[in-house]
Structure formats: C-alpha cells, structure tokens
C-alpha cells in the first residue's frame, strides 16, 4: 500500500506531492495523460503568468465569492511566496508594468523540468496513462494500459482540474463518481471564456484585430484591457473577467475612450469636420482605430449626428452577444466540489484521509496569475494537511 497518492499531475497535484515528500511521506503521483503538466505547459505558450504582485487586499478580492474560503491558503502561499518558489527552482523572474510576474524565459517548460527533477530527487513515483474511475469499497480504481488496477493509501489528494480543456486532461469526468458517492458537486460553468457574437459580413476584414485600451462592463463587473475581434466573437483579457456576469445574460458595453470624460469626448466630436469622412473624424478626434470604428458601426448604425449622442455611444457602446463560448473552450471553469463537503483542511468530510485541491474546488478567478496562484496554494495546503493526517 502506498502511503500517499496524488491523483492529477497539474500544478495543484505537483504542489501537493511536493508538500507530502517534503514532510517525508512516500508519494505516488497518478496522471491520466501520457505526460505530466500538459495544461501548465499550454498556459506557458503565451508567456507563463505566475502571479500578480500586488497587496493582499486587492489580490484576495479578485477571487470574488470564494475569497473567504481561499484566504487562509492564499495568506499561507501568496504572490511573494510564488516568486520565491519559482526562483528556488532556478527560474529568474520579472514583474511587468501591470504587476504580473513572469519567469524571464517566458516559458513553462524550464520551470516544470526543474520542478519534476526536484520531486524525482525526493523519491516521487509516477504512473501515467492511469485514469481514476471511482472507489471500490475503500480502494481507488484505475483504468490503466494493463487493465483495471486498485490501490489503497493512508491518504489521497485529488487534483483533477475543472471541466475545460478536456484534451489536456481537465475533463471534469471525476464529478460523476464524486456525485455518486454523495459528495456535493456544483455544476461546471465556463469561466475566463470568449464571448459569442454574430457579426455581419462587414466585420470579416477585421477578424484578428484588437480593440485596445478599452473598458468593458457587464453587470457590476468592469475590466480594462484588450479584446480581439474573431470570427466567433470577442476574445481576450478584457472580456474574460466579465464571464460570471455574461453567462448570466448581462448586457455588455464598451467604453472606447476610457481616459476621457463624456464632456471631453463630446467637445472633440463637436469640432468642425469639414469635408472629412466620419471615419477620419473619429480617428483624428478620438484616435479610434479601424477596428474600433468598425465595432461602433456594427453595433450602433445608423450613428447619431449630434455630438453628445455620439459621445454617449463611444463611452458605452452596447454589444449584442449570445453568452460565453462553450465550456471546453474556456480557460477555466466555475463550479466543482462544494466547500460544505470539506473541512478547513480541504479533507472530504465523508471520506477521512481524502483531500482535494486546485480547480476541482468551487471557485473561479480572473486570469493574470490568480488562477495559478490559487492552484498552487490549495495544492500546498491539501498536501501539508494530508501529511499531518498521515503522521497522526
């Protein structure tokens, strides 16, 4: 019998294994895919955003409804700790102008290699292509290349991810055996997802163009950033944080001149345009790009001629949409294991010795380092408490 099993080879599972091994607990890591850390590597393809270097007040607030549940874990392993952890693995870091922390290599692979070497040097055993299928009495059952296998352990940490990116391992299939065992699981919903918009043919030539330096609003949520016009709708960091409101049907508005007041926009639009076209007038008066102008024309044509009414549109352009993109296209998911089914140690109340971590817990956060930090923090927390439980 293995002393500890960690099921799931993403950041939360690796951090749980690190905590267990650091406490001297022999640990076996089990991953359904042929290799470990696939979603982690995918996240690093566009530059691995490790965390957000900011004060804990606004940092914790980014987790919304789950802040109270996550606060102890994030206080124990917050942005400064993430920085120290990465540099402890030999990866120099830097903080960008927005406070986001990156490894200087801008890649996930060197960090993952260093981390796996550390774990292997501590004695980690690994099993890949082993998919957990449920409990059989007190044993855990796995579908493996050699057929059905059953394992038992003193403690187990589940870190099986959410319900998006199935091809990388986060397919949410674990929810069925958990639900069958009477463990509360909240339905998965897309989070940090693109937005479905049915464009007219006039927008085709703008596909791939960014709407830069805009403020996006949906319900009570506000996000300043960039969104890319795509054949499917709008994608990007300016849209993703609004997903909780957008999936509830909230209207989307875009402020294309966020640094100017409505009065300033009105005054600029009121300048004589002479023989200029409206496009040239908007470009010169407000520095609107062709993509931003196309968005205005698409969403509000025919445009008002009165400068005050046009300014209102520029400052709060309504964009009709059909909700977020499908869940498997989302960066992450909301929903998962209900907090009421776990102790403060992240141990399942109905299965003593079984702990859970990462995106399989019911929380969501915007991109920008918040997701990865909470996965690492909950993985560490679950692993440390599993080690203490094992040694009782």
Short overview:
The chain is of the alpha+beta class and 392 residues long. The protein has helices at residues 11-22, 38-43, 56-61, 67-76, 79-88, 109-121, 175-180, 243-246, 262-269, 278-286, 290-300, 307-315, 370-390; strands at 2-7, 27-31, 51-52, 93-95, 100-103, 125-128, 131-136, 139-144, 147-151, 153-158, 185-191, 195-196, 210-218, 221-230, 233-235, 252-255, 317-319, 332-337, 354-356.
Describe the structure.
This protein is of the alpha+beta class and 392 residues long. The chain folds into 2 domains: 2-190 and 330-390, FAD/NAD(P)-binding domain, CATH 3.50.50; 195-319, no CATH class. The chain has helices at 11-22, 38-43, 56-61, 67-76, 79-88, 109-121, 175-180, 243-246, 262-269, 278-286, 290-300, 307-315, 370-390, and strands at 2-7, 27-31, 51-52, 93-95, 100-103, 125-128, 131-136, 139-144, 147-151, 153-158, 185-191, 195-196, 210-218, 221-230, 233-235, 252-255, 317-319, 332-337, 354-356. The strands form 5 sheets. Strands 12-15-14-13-16-17 form a 6-stranded antiparallel sheet. Strands 6-2-1-10-19 form a 5-stranded parallel sheet, with helices on one face. Helix 4 packs across helix 13 (370-390) and helix 9 crosses helix 12 (307-315). The longest helix has 21 residues, at 370-390.
């Amino acid at each position: 019998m293995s002393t500890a099993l960690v099921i799931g080879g993403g950041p939360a599972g690796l951090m749980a294994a690190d905590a267990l091994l650091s406490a001297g607990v022999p640990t076996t890591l089990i991953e359904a895919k042929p290799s470990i850390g696939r979603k982690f590597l995918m996240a690093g393809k566009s530059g691995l955003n490790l965390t957000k270097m900011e004060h804990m007040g606004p940092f914790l607030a980014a987790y919304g409804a789950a802040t109270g549940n996550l606060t102890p874990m994030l206080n124990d392993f917050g942005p400064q700790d993430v920085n120290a952890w990465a540099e402890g693995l030999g990866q120099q870091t830097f903080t960008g102008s927005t406070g986001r922390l990156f490894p200087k290599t801008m890649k996930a692979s060197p960090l993952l290699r260093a981390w796996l070497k550390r774990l292997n040097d501590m004695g980690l055993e690994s099993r890949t292509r082993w998919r957990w299928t449920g409990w059989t009495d007190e044993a855990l059952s796995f579908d493996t290349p050699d057929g059905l296998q059953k394992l038992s352990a003193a403690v187990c940490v589940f870190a099986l991810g959410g319900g998006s990116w199935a091809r990388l391992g986060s397919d949410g299939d674990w929810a069925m055996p958990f639900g069958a065992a009477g463990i509360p699981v909240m339905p998965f919903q897309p989070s940090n997802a693109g937005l479905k918009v049915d464009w007219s043919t006039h927008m085709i030539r703008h596909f791939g163009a960014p709407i830069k330096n805009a403020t996006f609003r949906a319900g009570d949520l506000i996000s300043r950033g960039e969104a890319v016009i795509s054949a499917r709708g709008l994608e990007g960091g300016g849209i993703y944080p609004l997903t909780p409101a957008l999936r509830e049907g909230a209207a989307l508005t875009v402020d294309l001149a966020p640094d100017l007041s409505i009065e300033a926009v009105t005054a600029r639009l009121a300048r004589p345009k002479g023989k200029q076209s409206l496009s040239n007038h908007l470009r010169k008066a407000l520095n609107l790009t062709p993509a931003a102008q196309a968005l205005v024309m698409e969403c509000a044509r025919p445009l008002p001629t009165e400068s005050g009414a046009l300014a209102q549109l520029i400052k709060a352009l309504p964009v009709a949409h059909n909700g977020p993109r499908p869940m498997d296209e989302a960066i992450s998911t909301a929903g998962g294991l209900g907090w009421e089914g776990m102790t403060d140690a992240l141990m399942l109340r109905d299965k003593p010795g079984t702990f859970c971590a990462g995106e399989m817990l019911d929380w969501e956060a915007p991109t920008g380092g918040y997701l990865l930090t909470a996965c690492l923090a909950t993985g560490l927390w679950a692993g440390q408490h599993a080690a203490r439980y094992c040694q009782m």
